[in-house]
Specification:
Layout (H helix, E strand, L loop, with lengths): L1 H12 L6 H8 L9 E6 L4 E4 L14 H6 L5 E7 L2 E12 L2 E12 H41 L1
Length: 152
């Protein structure tokens, strides 16, 4: 995800001006990034471009934690797993001529990885329960064997 953000940031940093039209033209070639949402902000955190046109955040401040950290010059990546879906977010700063001019923020949802993660969780739980039952069984067997010797 960070690499995808850096690719977008690299393309955007070459633009003469950061505005909705120039960014929309540059972003039109990003279809192969396969992200659910792409937000590009200026240096103050105001959205210049949002691939989710229904959100209506263009020209508004977008102060997601990832974006604020990217505007401090950091590359940021977070992921979480909820309801069978892996959600990854990443953000990276955009530099033009050595000056921080904005950030690129991406969200990606991966149901296939979420399914794999859920399967691993189920397998680990099953193995843990089986091992606990084996330990309990052997504890009972050995305690009976040793208690017989003590009784004798």
């Amino acid at each position: 995800m960070i690499e995808k953000c850096k690719i977008a940031a690299s393309a955007i940093s070459d633009l003469d001006a950061l505005n909705a039209n120039t960014i929309a033209d540059a972003v039109s070639g990003f279809d192969d990034l396969n992200v659910a949402r792409l937000v590009i902000t200026d240096g103050n955190g105001r959205a210049i471009y949002d691939s989710n046109t229904d959100a209506g955040i263009e020209k508004k401040y977008v102060l997601f934690p990832e974006i604020t950290k990217a505007l401090m010059g950091n590359d940021v990546f977070y992921w979480n797993y909820r309801d069978g879906i892996m959600r990854s977010t990443a953000s990276t700063p955009v530099y033009s001529f050595g000056k921080l001019v904005g950030s690129v923020y991406m969200i990606e949802y991966d149901k296939a990885q979420g399914t794999l993660f859920a399967t691993l969780q189920d397998n680990i739980f099953t193995i843990t329960v089986i091992l606990e039952l084996i330990v309990i069984f052997y504890s009972i067997v050995f305690s009976n064997i040793y208690s017989r010797r003590l009784k004798k």
